[in-house]
């Protein structure tokens, strides 16, 4: 009798994981380079682009350039768990830890939290269960990403989440440009969980340190993620009181930078404006304008980020369709 396919699959995986350390390390460094190496490769690529040299293909475009959200949502967990298996085989590899963490945060946001928000309140238990899943994945992703920073700066997480701002800022001063990716995704994971459950004391204790991490990342590479970093800060500043690092003035300043670095080409920037400013101010006109601006963007104008544009435009359409739930016009 033939063995089931999954027996062959796991046998193949076992052989892969038992390969020599040197071959394994080469493979890991290729698919998920350590932060400092990844940053150096990115800088080299930018230089080659500036010099007009052709670039090799980027395999991640198979996901970020896809226009079929359902296809990506179905394959994403497989990719995520594959990287997590690689992580379990070598927990010391900071590149694999960081990639695994990023994938968890992305999955929590795009394929768990976003769909959960659209579940009717009539199905409260189902909606709340999905929010709990998203929170769990946000925290798991943030934890993985923090390992890259912990490996570079032992004691980093304990210090950055302490209640001593002088020590927090001191440890952040150690961070360099190649740490920005880890700073961003670690903080985004924690803040994503906080947004879903602002009463969890374990998460609350890490919020201010996470904001400081984002601010340090913005200081090191202001245009990181084409303004996406500033979008996260905009949302936080707009929602949080000044006592924990928020405030409307800071939110407006962050939004200006988000729009500047995105060059007005990211649909998510306009959705952020609608949710961070227009809903709290009950600005129906601004709400419609911002969402229409998001919908006016052609996803094909930025093929590398086609998926993210389509996801943001899906949010914009849903918000427009449910405007009466957010803007109370008389």
List strands and helices in order, with pairings:
Layout: H1 5-17, H2 21-31, H3 35-50, H4 61-64, H5 69-89, H6 94-117, H7 124-152, H8 156-160, H9 165-172, H10 180-196, H11 201-220, H12 228-239, H13 248-262, H14 267-278, H15 284-296, H16 306-321
Helix pairs in contact: 5-6, 6-7, 6-10, 7-10, 9-11, 10-11, 11-12, 12-13, 12-14, 13-14, 14-15, 15-16
What's the short story on this structure?
This protein has 330 residues and is an all-alpha fold. It is 72% helix and 0% strand. The chain has helices at residues 5-17, 21-31, 35-50, 61-64, 69-89, 94-117, 124-152, 156-160, 165-172, 180-196, 201-220, 228-239, 248-262, 267-278, 284-296, 306-321.
Task: Supply database-style keywords.
single chain; 330 residues; mainly alpha; 16 helices; disordered N terminus
- By secondary-structure content and strand pairing, the structural class works out as mainly alpha
Span between termini: 72 Å
Query: Which strand-content bin applies to the residues?
Result: under 5%
User: Count of helices?
Assistant: 16
The backbone outline, from C-alpha atoms, is globular
What is the radius of gyration computed over CA atoms, rounded to a whole number of angstroms? 21 Å
Tell me how many strands there are: 0
Q: Name the helix and strand elements from N-terminus to C-terminus, one letter apiece.
A: HHHHHHHHHHHHHHHH
Largest sheet: none
**Low-pLDDT stretches:** 1-28
- Roughly what is the average pLDDT, rounded to an integer? 87
Helix percentage range = over 70%
